[in-house]
Amino acid sequence: MEDILILAIESSCDETSVAIVKNGRDVLSNITQSQIDIHKIYGGVVPEIASRNHIKAITYVTEEALQIANVKLEDIDVIACTYGPGLVGTILVGLSYAKGLAFALNKPLVGVNHIEGHIAANYIKYKELKPPFLTLIISGGHTHLVYVEDYTEFKILGKTRDDAIGEAFDKVARIIGLGYPGGPKIEALAKQGTPNIVLPSMNLENFNFSFSGIKTAILNMYNKNKEINKPDLCASFQYYVTESLLANTLEAAKKYNISKIVLCGGVSANSYIREKFSEVCKEKNLKLYYPDIDLCTDNAAMIGSAGYYNYIAGKTADLTLNGVPNLTIEGVIF
After folding, report:
1. Which CATH class is domain 5-119+296-327?
2. 10-residue averages of pLDDT along the chain (334 residues)
């Protein structure tokens, strides 16, 4: 089979990213321009500002990705881009640019589900990794427990019924005055504390999650006592959410006799979560996979990997492809 070069674009939130990926696993370049510093002042991502900055950045980010990969546009075989979920305005910037390239170059266009992209990030780090496996998707907008039956076939085992875990990290950080982005700030402060504060359980039936209760409990605690030990509170929050993730993941692995566990999404960069999963998976004789830090957050390399597997499965799109901000992972409830 001849090599397939994919130019991939990711613009679902506040990262403008373009990558050149060969055969779904080899990243020739992966250029990402983050807008975190721009949005810090607002305490979160402002969609209109994010969209405008994507427009400013996408052309030179694409040029840099091509230059570093040492390839020309005419060398590209497939154009892949995120078409959801995410912020509709930011999605449309990357999608429109991708459609323009596909039309101008007369190349196939592949729309990629951003959530599937997070799963595919592990194919880049682990060349030997193949489905089937169990994946826990933990990010700012998503908390899913999914059985990956094949590269483009998924069965949803459970998901959050309210806040995503990354959203919970950001909200708790905002409540106690740590600012945005919340995940890294809570992780850093938790290292100075002890998980000695009792917080509510977050597990529901059928491998589902709920994080709104623990957020509300922390809000009430902090409102009653502004002098509460913040490091201990962060350590306790991090401990309980991790125990929730572990409990559902291990129960699903046991029920369906799955020995490979894959973490992905921005929150999978959390060192405490990685360490706890590594310890428990070793005890249970389960094989654990998680991406490199730069592949945990939103990036185009993961979109290029997922785009490759969609392309070889015949899942291409035409120029009528539109952004779907509330797109869910394609699959059936197990």
Report:
1. alpha beta
2. 93 92 98 80 78 91 97 97 94 96 97 96 97 96 94 94 93 92 94 94 83 94 94 97 95 96 96 97 97 94 98 96 88 41
CATH T-level fold of 130-293: Nucleotidyltransferase; domain 5 (3.30.420)
Task: Report the candidate in 121, 104, 169, 102 with the shortest Cα–Cα distance to residue 25.
Answer: 121
- Between CA 123 and CA 156 the distance in angstroms is 20
Is residue 303 a contact partner of residue 9, using CB atoms and an 8 Å limit?
yes
Quickly list H helices, the chain: 36-39, 47-69, 88-105, 114-125, 165-175, 182-190, 212-224, 230-255, 271-283, 293-296, 300-312
Contact predicate 117/302, CB 8 Å: yes
Which among 179, 167, 192 is positioned nearest to 36, based on CA atoms? 179
Tallying the residues shown for the chain, one arrives at 334
Query: Can you give the residue ranges of every domain in the chain?
Result: 5-119+296-327, 130-293
Please tell me whether the overall predicted TM-score, pTM, comes out greater than 0.85 for this model.
yes
Could you give the 3-state DSSP secondary structure of residue 140? coil
> CA nearest 107: which of 312, 299, 318?
318
131 is written with which tokens? 């489905």
Distances in Å between the Cα of 295 and the Cα atoms of 92, 241, 269, 307 are 22, 22, 9, 15
Residue type at 69 in one-letter notation: A
Burial 255-266 (b: 16+ CB within 10 A, else e): eeebebbbbbbb
Cα dihedral sign, 114-179-229-199:
negative
Q: Which pair of structure tokens corresponds to residue 306?
A: 């997922």
pLDDT at 334: 34
Same fold, 5-119+296-327 and 130-293: yes
User: Are the C-beta atoms of 294 and 131 separated by less than 8 Å?
Assistant: no
